[in-house]
Each structure stands twice: as structure tokens, then as C-alpha cells.
Amino acid sequence: MAPPTPKLVIPIDLKKKPWEQKLPLHNRWHPEIPPVTEIKTGEMFRIEMVDWTAGAIQDNNSAIDVKTIDLSTVHYLSGPIRVVDTDGNPAEPGDLLAVELCNLGPLPGDEWGFTAIFDRENGGGFLTDHFPRATKAIWYFEGIYAHSPHIPGVRFPGLVHPGIIGTAPSKELLNIWNERERKLEETGHQSLKLCEVLHTRPLANLPSTKGCILGKIQDGTPEWKRIANEAARTIPGRENGGNCDIKNLSRGSKIYLPVFVEGANFSTGDMHFSQGDGEVSFCGAIEMSGFLELKCEIIRNGMKEYLTPTGPTPLHVNPIFEIGPMEPRFSEWLVFEGISVDESGQQHYLDASVAYKRAVLNAIDYLSKFGYTKEQVYILLSCCPCEGRISGIVDAPNAVATLAIPTAIFDQDIRPKVNKVPLGPRLVRNPGIPQCTYDGSLPITKNPLLH
């Protein structure tokens, strides 16, 4: 007997706003955001999701939507979902929620996505001091493959995955998040030397009522105002999972999420067709609307049995991820190395972030020799199936990071050659990409040998 069709528990109408959906979406983490539906362990169910901006970025040749986007509203998540066992008993704090991803993909009829670089004054990204201008590339899907008219000469298979998947925090855990992130935002600029090298601001996105969507909780009520002032933004990954952006969490993967509130209050969103390790441009995957078919199990007392706290409380734990068997297969890679020496030549001590920045910059400079603009390469490295690694973290003073790029995604040979570097035939005809001007006054980091 064939298994039943997965039950659609959260439908999406792309013509409606997030708060107009049949089951309203939310864009914050808080234990008091009520669940919109309930599922039982073992049953297959289907969730539909808007893209992380809920349609704010359009399929066109202008990047003005990227430049002016209101980032207080992201990410829009489907959920929360209350999880109970077959006897109707809910998941309890201290349990593990095992979530198996059975199937996923773009929403039918909406088979396109986007990758972008935010303006430095509005979001920025890993290399925002080098690339401060809002820039956008549109991608179209042909089965498992993606291609872009804005980065011609490239085609690659996607590895579809949700960027965000997590459970609701308890009030105690929420307070821990808010306290440590507020301290970082208030003192980090003066105390952290890394702020001189990595320029994404703010250092932490603190709770804010602006743009806040709390699902079933009515906007403007005293309850909404109180929760909105406490609720955590969805930007970083945390102990509950959240925005981990792990590109290999595709079909067949399992996520073991800590449970902090009764019912787990599971949410997901931020669907990606493809992403490179690090998602370096910030809006850096191929962002899309999508669906997820999954099932859950409850491992009673699983947090104590399987997770070891690394911090001052039992809440300082992290999820476990089991990668599925489905991924693109490549046999040849070009690998770029970076060390923990910044663009000014300053030595840093075993700093993997500085090393990875150098690896990405080295790859961008190299690939721009083959007919691409550097912005095209930056976007490409953020969303194509490239592999980032910390290759060395013990040999003081240099951490070593590498970025491996599959050569098969290009329509030309990008390896170093004895002969002059040839240009790809399609790249000559269309080297442009939608961009806006940068109107801010912050300095742009440049290679002193090239200027």
C-alpha cells in the first residue's frame, strides 16, 4: 500500500502578505508566539514557505529593491508547529526533536531565485568594505540546475535546503541571548580587534518592535508590544538551531534540535536552491520560496543524554546535524588559500575569519581574470556549491582557510595555463549585473598594489 500524501499543514499564497496568510507567519523567536498548528510524531507533513524577504526582491534588472529593503522584517518563518507523540503528549523541555527532511523544492510555478549584495549602509556582508554597492543576480531553475542571465557562462546543480530550522527558546534562554548580544553591540566596537577587519554592522541585531511579526498575536496590543520588545531577531544561528545556513541539510538529512518549551514550537523558512559555504554576501544563497516535506520524532530526555553543555547553564547546547546522501558530484576543484594576515599586511593570531576573508578575496581576484566583474564573482561564490574549510588552526600565528570551487560549473577552463587566459564566449556579450550606487562615506578597502 502506497504511503499517504504528506498533509499540508502550512499553506502559502504568494499573492498575500505574511500577516494575511491563512496561518500567519512570524519573524522573531519568543516562547510566547503561539503555535499555528499541531502535528504528531511519525506522520509526514508539508510546510510551504515564502522567500526570506516575502517577495520584497523582484525578478527584474534593477537592484533598487536590494538597496532599499527593510531588513527589520526578515526572516519570515512558517510556524510555530506544536509537536506531540502518538499518544498526544507534547515534546517537553529537555527532549530532542529529531526532524527528518524527506523532500523539498521550489514552490510550483515560482521556479526562480535571487542572490544579492546589500548596500554597506543597509545590511552589508562579509566583504562589505570591498563591495559596498547593492547588487543583484536573478537565477532561473531548470530541474536541478540553476543559471543566471546576470552571470553568464555558469550553470550548476542546486542542493535545496532550509536556511532556518529551529525550536522556540525558553524565557531563560531568550534572556541569555539578549543579554550577551546587547553587551556585544554596546562594547564590541572598542574591545574586539576583529571589528577593524570585518565591517558588517550592527554587531548584533537586538530586539525591536520595528517590522516585528508575531504570528497570531495581534499587532498593537499590549501583549504584542511586550513580546516584540523581548523577541530575538532571526539573523544568527543559536542554541535552538535557527539561521545555521548549512548547505548540506537537504533530502535525507536529520536535525536533532533541543527542546526548550512544551511542544517544541518548531519553525522553518529561508529556503535556498543553492548556497556556498559561508553564504558570504549575506543575501548570499539563491533565495526562493519553497516547500518542505518532513516528519518528526521525540527523543525523551535527549538533551541530557546526547548534548553536553558548553557554557554556564544546561541551556548552552547546540543541535546535531545528520547530513543526507544527496549532493552534487564534482571531481575537479580549484582551491584558494587564505591566512590570518589582513589586507593591510597586519598579522592576526590564528584568526579563521581573517583567513577565510583572504581566501574569498583571492578567489574573486583570480576569477575576475576570466571576463567577470568582481561583483559577479562575489555573488557566485556566495551561492554556488563551493566548499569552505578551516584547514589549519594550530600552527601559530596563522590560521589557514581554503575555498574550493568546482571547475565544472564554468563553460571555460579556469585553471592556470601557459597560454594567455581566454575569455568565455558568452561572458563577452553580457558582462553586466544590476547595481546601485554607494552613497555612503565609509572608506572602501582596496589592494594597495592595484591602486
Walk me through this protein's architecture.
- This is Formamidase.
- One of its GO terms (molecular function) is hydrolase activity, acting on carbon-nitrogen (but not peptide) bonds, in linear amides.
- This protein is α+β, with helices and mostly antiparallel strands and 451 residues long.
- It has seven helices and 20 strands.
- It has helices spanning 64-68, 171-191, 222-230, 302-306, 352-367, 374-383, 425-429; strands spanning 7-10, 37-40, 45-49, 77-84, 96-106, 112-117, 135-142, 145-147, 155-157, 161-167, 237-238, 241-243, 254-258, 266-272, 282-287, 290-299, 320-322, 333-339, 387-392, 400-406.
- It has a six-stranded mixed sheet with strand order 1-3-16-5-13-17, with no helix packed on it.
- A hairpin with a 7-residue loop joins strand 8 (145-147) and strand 9 (155-157).
- The chain starts with 6 loop residues before the first strand and ends in a 22-residue tail after the last helix.
- Mean pLDDT is 95; it is low at 425-429.
